[in-house]
Amino acid sequence: MRTRKILITLCAVSLTWLAAAAAPTWQPQVEQLMRQGEFKQAARLMDRLPKAERKANAVVIDSLKTIMQRIERDFSMTPEEGERLIRERVPNVTPEQLARWKAARQLEVMNIDGKERWFRKSIRNLWLLAPDFKQSQDADRKASYEEKRQQFVETMKAEAGSNHTHDWRQADITFTLDVEADAVPAGETLRVWMPIPYSNARQRNIEITWGNRAFHESEGSKHHTIYMEAVAEKGKPTHFEYRFNYELAERHIAQQDILTLLEPYDTSSEEYKEYTGNQAPHIIITDEMRALARRIVGNETNPVLQAQLIFDWISKTFPWAGAREYSTLENIPQYVLANNHGDCGQVTLLYITLVRSLGIPARWESGWWIKPGEENWHDWAETYFEGVGWVYTDQSNGRSTYGTPMSTYYLSGMDLYRMASNEGTGDVLDPEKTFIRSETVDFQPGEVEWRGGNLFYDKWNSHLKVNSLIPVKEVKTQRIKPMGHSRKDAF
Per residue in 265-322, pLDDT tens? Predict the structure, then answer.
């Protein structure tokens, strides 16, 4: 059922802004060398191109070299370093154990320029993935479930609001981004994009209350951002900061209610076709994906129950593990199938692809987990059921609730602690970015560039802080009307 190719994958196809133009004739050869782990040969080939060719394709060359740098950064651990770290916990580890973990991709390794290299997160991932450590894995899952159950119990104490919402709060948030001193030459202009929420069924009344620089709010992009510029000063870090507030709520619809209201899909609508079709490079409905989806759902024909079967299968099959840079992966759902694990965004893309294979509309949403003191990135999906509309689907959190009384909650619900800023993947930023993004799929920590190229995460850091999360009184309306750049609940 699963592909076992151990190849270096690259993001050339995921650079949608590059795909608009015809690829240079030499690019397929470079990509093949990259897949084979022959990075030095690939770089030499590009360096030896005629000067005019290099100038005409400067951004493409920069992007391909950047991907190789990111792969080398991800696979920066030597086998000796990795084995030493493993022996700190498993002193008597054997070569046979190491070989077994590698074969199962519980230890992820690559051969780059003739040398074995281990994924920099592979040791932590080993404790999360290998059956040898099942006892601690089960304890972690139990603790995660109990936390989510308590959140649910507390949220349900609030009076039910309109549009299936509970527990409306006002969040006050500060976002900062700091570029290191001398990351670019003094006098050069830094261009910075940072996330903001957008109006939807569980987010409203968004207001940017302060910024330390002039800013531009995005229009037309699936990545909702605030854009700033600043001139770098010699020896000084460059600070960007803004503050905003908005109202948010928990929202879920019980599975039985969805089943009661369900109607046949209008398969002729353009929206239906959009959200059941391909979205290259990561949502590709192949014959293999269709066959896999059919094997999972068997004879079930009800789309609500089909979606639950897909949701449950992913939850029990693919444990969470630290992810490689998305920009270095050619097709993320195939990566999950080949490696038997995935982080929140990776299993979300697999879920979207599989349910779309069955003719069930699904789409991406992502942003931040905003429980005060635990702020972090997070990705999830939405699933469309005719007669009901779009419901939230958090595939990653489905893992910690699988087999419990809350097993259907995250299939059609979202807890309170989410800030959605992305309603799709891999879109063009506003204003448009010149160079390859640090994250070509998602958008959470921000993006930074100057006229000399993209600045990767090692040159800057960002932070989201929830200053307060205060209950607000529900506005009694027949239906919450999203404001601004809204996302419709129905087609």
Answer: 999 999 999 999 999 999 999 999 999 999 999 999 999 999 999 999 999 999 999 9
Q: 451 near 62, Cβ under 8 Å?
A: no
What are φ and ψ of residue 73, in 5° steps? Answer: -65, -45
Per-residue pLDDT averaged across 87-100, rounded? 96
Q: Nearest CA to 351 among 305, 391, 303, 383?
A: 383
Residue 68 and residue 43 in contact, taking contact as beta carbons nearer than 8 Å: yes
DSSP states of 22-63: PPPTTHHHHHHHHHTT-HHHHHHHHHTS-HHHHHHTHHHHHH
Q: If residue 397 lies in a helix (H) or strand (E), which one and from where to where?
A: helix 395-401
Please provide residue 219's backbone torsions phi and psi, each rounded to the nearest 5 degrees.
-135, 130
Whether the Cβ atoms of residue 449 and residue 189 lie closer than 8 Å to each other = no
Q: 383-416 as b/e, with b when 16 or more CB fall inside 10 Å?
A: bbbbebbbbbbbbbbbbbbbeeebbbbbbbbbbb
The answer to whether 314 and 347 have CB atoms below 8 angstroms apart is yes
CA distances from 329 to 69, 282, 324, 358 (A): 13, 9, 8, 25
Phi, psi of 368 (to 5 degrees): -130, 145
Q: Judge residue 82's burial from the number of C-beta atoms within 10 Å of its C-beta, 0-12 exposed, 13-18 middle, 19 or more buried.
A: buried
User: Alpha helices, DSSP H only, in 130-250?
Assistant: 134-155
- The torsion defined by the Cα of 347, 351, 352 and 353, in degrees rounded to 10, comes to 100
pTM here is 0.92
